[in-house]
Amino acid sequence: MRAATSTRPADAAVGAVDTHCPYCALQCGMTLSPAGRASVRVRPRDPSAGGLCQKGWTAAALLGSPARLTTPLVRDGGTLRPASWDEALGLVARRIKEIAAQRGPDAVAVFGGGGLTNEKAYLLGKFARVALGTSQIDYNGRFCMSSAAAAAHRAFGLDRGLPFPLADLEGADAVLLAGANPAETMPPFLSHLRRAMDAGGLIVVDPRRTPTAERAALHLAPAPGTDLALALGILHAAVADGRLDHAYVEGRTTGFEETWRVTAAWWPERAERVTGVAAADQRRAAAILAEAASAYVLTARGAEQHATGVDTVGAWINLALALGLPGRRGSGWGCLTGQGNGQGGREHGQKADQLPGYRRIDDPAARAHVARVWGIEPSALPGPGRSAFELLDALGTSGGPSALLVFGSNPVVSAPHSARVADRLAALDLLVVADIVLSETARAADVVLPITQWAEEDGTLTNLEGRVLLRRRALSPPPGVRTDLQVLHDLAVRLGQPPERFPTDPETVFTELRAASEGGPADYSGVTWDRLRAGERLHWPVPRQPGHQGTPRLFLDRFAHPDGRARFAAVDHKGPAEPPDEEFPLYAVTGRVLQHYQSGAQTRRVEELRAAVPEAYVEVHPDTAHRAGLSDGAAASVAGRRGRVVATVRCVPSMRPDVVFLPFHFPGAQRANLVTNPALDPVSRMPEFKVCAVRLSPAGEREAQ
Ligand code: SF4
What we know:
Elements: E1 3-4, E2 17-20, E3 29-35, E4 39-44, H1 54-57, E5 73-76, E6 79-82, H2 85-103, E7 108-112, H3 118-132, E8 137-139, H4 146-156, E9 174-178, H5 182-185, H6 194-198, E10 202-205, H7 211-214, E11 218-220, H8 227-240, H9 246-252, E12 253-254, H10 256-263, H11 268-275, H12 279-291, E13 295-299, H13 301-304, H14 309-322, E14 332-335, E15 354-355, E16 359-360, H15 364-374, H16 388-394, E17 403-407, H17 411-414, H18 418-426, E18 430-435, H19 440-443, E19 447-450, E20 459-462, E21 468-471, H20 484-494, H21 506-517, H22 529-533, E22 566-567, E23 586-591, H23 607-612, E24 617-620, H24 622-627, E25 635-640, E26 644-651, E27 659-663, E28 677-680, E29 687-688, E30 692-698, H25 701-704
Parallel strand pairs: 7-8, 7-17, 9-10, 9-13, 10-11, 12-22, 13-14, 17-18, 18-19, 23-27, 24-26
Antiparallel strand pairs: 1-4, 2-3, 3-4, 5-6, 5-19, 15-16, 20-21, 23-30, 24-27, 25-26, 25-30, 28-29
Iron/sulfur cluster binds at residues 21, 23-24, 26-28, 52-53, 55-56, 186-188.
């Protein structure tokens, strides 16, 4: 057993507390215990479910980090100086009032995060619409889950990452992972795939030979941006080889004929020419899935973070539908959610087009319901706002917001075309950042508000299978910090709201959230903290009905469209928005490493994780490196149309010679997002993080510093 190194005294009065990891959507259970007064001991609650990854084991180290913010900061003469809460909040409220009075409520914007608890995400959306009256709110989950969410809505009429319990995967004989690398992003997840791996049924679609691909019976490595063509080729193979589930397609779906009209042109040999994946391997993938007694198709960011992300996920859903997998016990399609509350964070109103309960903000009935819960007139609710990148891109422009409040996000590192985003933030009249550390975005702020973290507060999150979890407070927060709920309350009151409209107690906020979500697609009205405390496993929807046990498996009887049928989508391959050319001849692919989480604001401050991966690197085939005049360990410049990243070369013989890989957790000149392409999916508004064109060369000495 390991003890994480927290130098801040633990709260001995609390004792051992069962809670959950602060990072990814797997939300592994852990027990936190004070060990003396110098450290917080971390133990996995369910070692048989894979235990914890290195991030989870070391999570408590951040509780005692010297980098922790404990006093508000206010910009004064170009530098940030300590200030009292009264001064900081008074300044923020005064500037918001001035800016809104001059330019209207939409001049003030809000940017949230997929790591916020359900209560915070809910109150943030309410704060934006009610206290600020702005339509300009979105969140970083737009960069993570939006394509899968839109594709699931289109196909099934409802989006829940996994529409079945995670444990169902343990019975799978075959699993196709499209653009997922859980061996690094959420290693304990692999424990659920043991049977499929042992049965030779794990298929991994990824341009790189990742640690997950290493475990696969079949690794399909398409050229970046061609996954949709690969899915069409496999679907063609399945149909041509007589594997279409006719009864299912006829009884439970619509749209196959239109889809086949497109897919018929994608015989595997043609798909091979576009993707580079052998036709025989496409046929083998179709056979493995079709012949398995229990099979799943799962997608993740590799399939989703494209300007064609919705259609790419739709193509994988088409394959699952053709094989009769979704809505059947023991098989299905699902999406592996990334951020800790990536699921709940997209349900409760911090999205530009959304109200709590996964309701649409342009639906009159939804507006009436939520307005009633909030005690306002429906007409007082703003309409839809800008999506995340469009919002960031508009900051400080003549028609865009001139003030931004950021909660739970670090867009200077995590947004695409990050130099442009940094410029837009610098053009604001007011930037306010609530965070636990001085992130790269907080460094640019006019006001920084220090908040509680993870183990210092209670709240709920919804994990990747749609199960609502209670995250328990294990420690007292350090003096000087406030919870996000307190910050929203304090600001709302200063902006003239009645205090009771913005509660600070998370359970009280959740009770209101239950009412706001009641009757919506993501109905939490039957979930109570007491039920969660008692250990009930509740997957939404959980209507307020006596004895309702939640809905672990969706769609067993019918899909959520009015006719009860799933929809095929007649999607076709378009390719990446920015293909390589003579000037920029390589594909750059971005992704995560085991030791770091998202923008790295937390994990780069955990010594064990920082020591393991201290800086950005670029994975490249040795021949490609040689041609660029580079060798292992050299400083490389990875230049694209929007900027240049400096990273250390790692020669990896399994890389495709036409691809380089950049992890995106690092700041400054090492930001992978300096080169990523903000081309947006027309439906989800997801940027094309996963592929852009670059050139590789030695970094000059000045660039390498
Ligand atoms: S897999 Fe995710 S939730 Fe589990 S310990 Fe690692 S980071 Fe935490």
